[in-house]
Amino acid sequence: MKWLQLVPWVAAALAASVSADDQGIGGAGGSGPGFETVPRVPFNGNDSLPYSPPFYPTPQTQGTTQKWKDAIGKAREYLQQFNQTEKVMLTTGTGWSRGPCVGNIAAIPRVGFPGLCLMDGPAGVRGTDRITSFPDGVTVAATFSKDLFYRRAHAMGEEFKTKGANIWLGPMNNIARTPEGGRNWEGFGADPYLSGEAAHYSVLGMQDAGVQANIKHYIGNEQEHFRNEGSTNIDGRTEREIYLHPFLRGVQAGASSAMCSYNLLQNSWACQNSEMLNNRLKTELGFSGYVLSDWGAQHAGVASANAGLDMTMPGDVTCCTKQTGSLWGGNLTTAINNGSVAETRLDDMATRILAGWYYVGQDKGYPKPNFDFFNQRDPTVNGFVDATKDHWKVAREVAAAGTVVLKNKRHALPLCKPDRLAIIGSDAGPLYQGANYWSDRGGWPYGTLGQGWGSGANEYSYFFSPYEALQARARQDRTDFQWNFDDYNYEQTEKIVTNVTAAIVFVSALSGEGYITVDNNEGDRNNLTVWNNGEELIKRVAANNNNTIVVVHSVGQVDYESFADHPNVTAIVLANLPGSESGPALASVLYGEVNPSGRLPYTIGRNRTDYGTDVLYYNDTVTPQINYTEALHVDYRHFDAKGIEPRWEFGFGLSYTTFDYSGIWWQQVGQADNSWWGDKTAADGLPEWLFEPLYEVSFSLTNTGERDGHEAWQAYLSFPKSAGEPPKVLRAFDRTELKVGETKEVSFKLSHYDLSTWSNKQHRWVRPEGKIKVLVGASSRDIRQAVVLH
Ligand SMILES: *[C@@H]1O[C@H](CO)[C@@H](O)[C@H](O)[C@H]1NC(C)=O
Ligand SMILES: *[C@@H]1O[C@H](CO)[C@@H](O)[C@H](O)[C@H]1NC(C)=O
Ligand SMILES: *[C@@H]1O[C@H](CO)[C@@H](O)[C@H](O)[C@H]1NC(C)=O
Ligand SMILES: *[C@@H]1O[C@H](CO)[C@@H](O)[C@H](O)[C@H]1NC(C)=O
Ligand SMILES: *[C@@H]1O[C@H](CO)[C@@H](O)[C@H](O)[C@H]1NC(C)=O
Ligand SMILES: *[C@@H]1O[C@H](CO)[C@@H](O)[C@H](O)[C@H]1NC(C)=O
Ligand SMILES: *[C@@H]1O[C@H](CO)[C@@H](O)[C@H](O)[C@H]1NC(C)=O
Ligand SMILES: *[C@@H]1O[C@H](CO)[C@@H](O)[C@H](O)[C@H]1NC(C)=O
Ligand SMILES: *[C@@H]1O[C@H](CO)[C@@H](O)[C@H](O)[C@H]1NC(C)=O
Ligand SMILES: *[C@@H]1O[C@H](CO)[C@@H](O)[C@H](O)[C@H]1NC(C)=O
Ligand SMILES: *[C@@H]1O[C@H](CO)[C@@H](O)[C@H](O)[C@H]1NC(C)=O
């Protein structure tokens, strides 16, 4: 019972501190891990501060597709009934805690408009009951499956709709630029193409379920420290090729809305940055929907209106306390009347908002919110409406498919009716004070880790720990099953792991959103080691059991060096952040009912300094400059370019079967004319032909092993040196199912865009001179087939 005795003093010392305004703002900045990790490097070698050029006015929404044109047409027609005050009401949230949802747009009875309910979070409906806690973004990314991206989002969408939430505040499209980034787990990993496809299929799945998606956080919000005062500085090519790409794919899926972020981008607030909103998003990408502010990210009424913001959230002057007054609302009316904001700008805001609503068909019989985020357990305001259907099935499928087997020696896995099994570590067991003890999951983990912390978390309606699922399985197999959840009671651990068939040690690492600090981690992690004494625990178990299996639940990269090569550590399984179905999903992989196919959505390095990027923890000015000086060299692009040997590379993951790649070939399927651009630049909007396919590449995939399974194949491009690209960039992937002995022909298309790089000088996408190589394989460093396009 030592574990239990530990709790009071540990809890006192390590309890989470939640800032006074406990939602989505404030927080991180100032303290950190005790060393300065990022050397001061001037952005682009230029000592004057980066600057964002003006771009006005906001383009009127046109509609890039017939579906958008129809929605905009309906919006314009309906808007004729609205008077000016009512148009302003569409743009301005009712204020924090003035309505049942995280964000609310008031109903307008005179014209029959029912209002809008905006809800977090990216992995399930936040702050309510009878919902499914789906696997987090990092976990679904690890599936490398477009089908699962879609089905997870569609099931989640059904829950948002059942609860009466109009807008899903997801997907999260920021890139895991630094392993320490606090909110990395909400997003889809470190590669823009993987994130882009995940964003694309998530938007499609969500919106097909009738719920508006919201691509966020636009843009450059890759760390929590200084997210409310720092300027992210990104050069034009890096911005387009890495950070903008997932937003482009979200726009192409028809996302109804986008969320501008807290930070500044080239020293201009993201929610009043006319270059990024009016030009990049609404002109270059042709975004037809509306831009809403992150909660409290609006800093000026007139400037944001003219720069392209369409909706302010939650509507108050500052976030997030109950108050009166808004930078918009009555102030927007005044600004229009005194000529600071054009009436046509208000019309465009309102048109975009109504168009997003029509686009997903919310004008017809959409449920009203039947819960209250601010009074979650009060039956007078909560209907406790069940939204779950059988969504546990897809949640479990994603959690299992997103489990990555990193090491498997001496046939440690799959487990086969072991005689005696011991499981060790607090991360194996149920959450001691209940699954929802810590507000927004932001606290020291006395129990298994299923989600990160912050507004991206949701309330578990139930949560199966690994212990529960593995014990059920042990009974079925008549396995003797012992456990110890006390991370510090070595005596008991050593006793139960000695002479048993296998010992499974569970360890975890956490991070989250910067408004909550856990053990001095202000959102971003201070280090990459596992928490809860994990390294020592693994060491103790491995010293006493020659079949030690390590299971890791983590928000992102951890340091595996102290145990990865240990001869008694026979297997390492990265279960990421699995949500409610944690235990059953893990058991299905450990016992081989599911053949693992999960792949790393980021590189695991041997040393923190190997990553080449880190969080900026310290400021010497009031507007800290977060310079993305590594440019394109993020994650594997950096390891490849610098020749650094990772522990495990991007895209890596083991299977219980083997796959053979063969017979690669390609054909041209489109016009190769490269003169279409003429005098045009991206300022005219990206042309349709850019996204038309030029080549189709095919290869054969055979299951050559003894188990049915899925292979998450990947295709990388290798550009000619003169293109200035990293050695390899991902351009296609998917997860293909193959029975034993089965062969399938796999094909993918490459568009003009896929084969282009961004030219800062010409301000457009250009086709590099020379030949492009296509590399197909099982990871970014396990290339099995190559072909040159010529
Ligand atoms: C970022 O670059 C600017 C110049 O563009 C420089 O003044 C500043 O010191 C740099 N900041 C850091 C943290 O490297
Ligand atoms: C430095 O950047 C500023 C702002 O972007 C620009 O005006 C200036 O010309 C640049 N200087 C050099 C030497 O590149
Ligand atoms: C617009 O309509 C609202 C009712 O929805 C009414 O209260 C308001 O006075 C009207 N405003 C104007 C400017 O007519
Ligand atoms: C207008 O904005 C100011 C802050 O700039 C705020 O104090 C005031 O309450 C706002 N007025 C209205 C009507 O919302
Ligand atoms: C117009 O109104 C807005 C909102 O109240 C205010 O911020 C701005 O200063 C006013 N501008 C002029 C020129 O009066
Ligand atoms: C592992 O230990 C068991 C006894 O617990 C022993 O029977 C077995 O041979 C050992 N295996 C290896 C590979 O050392
Ligand atoms: C484990 O088995 C060995 C024989 O292989 C025995 O000597 C030892 O006492 C056993 N350990 C425990 C803790 O029972
Ligand atoms: C890393 O951070 C965790 C959580 O704050 C802490 O428990 C652990 O002691 C730290 N590890 C090291 C090596 O500092
Ligand atoms: C591996 O485990 C065995 C017990 O099975 C132990 O005797 C041995 O010392 C361990 N090896 C290492 C390197 O810790
Ligand atoms: C990690 O890299 C740093 C800086 O290069 C070096 O000082 C340190 O010894 C390395 N740590 C390990 C464990 O290799
Ligand atoms: C660093 O940022 C904090 C806000 O997080 C600010 O209060 C402080 O003044 C800044 N420090 C300097 C030296 O500008």
TrEMBL record:
SUPFAM superfamilies: (Trans)glycosidases, Beta-D-glucan exohydrolase, C-terminal domain. Its EC number is 3.2.1.21. Keywords: Carbohydrate metabolism, Cellulose degradation, Glycoprotein, Glycosidase, Hydrolase, Polysaccharide degradation, Signal. It comes from the Eukaryota. Gene3D superfamilies: Glycoside hydrolase family 3 C-terminal domain, Glycoside hydrolase, family 3, N-terminal domain, Immunoglobulins. One of its GO terms (molecular function) is beta-glucosidase activity. GO terms for biological process: cellulose catabolic process. Residues 711-780 form the Fibronectin type III-like domain. Pathway: Glycan metabolism; cellulose degradation. It is an enzyme of class 3 (hydrolase). It catalyses: Hydrolysis of terminal, non-reducing beta-D-glucosyl residues with release of beta-D-glucose. The keyword Cytoplasm does not apply. Residues 1-20 form the signal peptide. Pfam families: Fn3-like, Glyco_hydro_3, Glyco_hydro_3_C. The keyword ATP-binding does not apply. Belongs to the glycosyl hydrolase 3 family. This is beta-glucosidase.
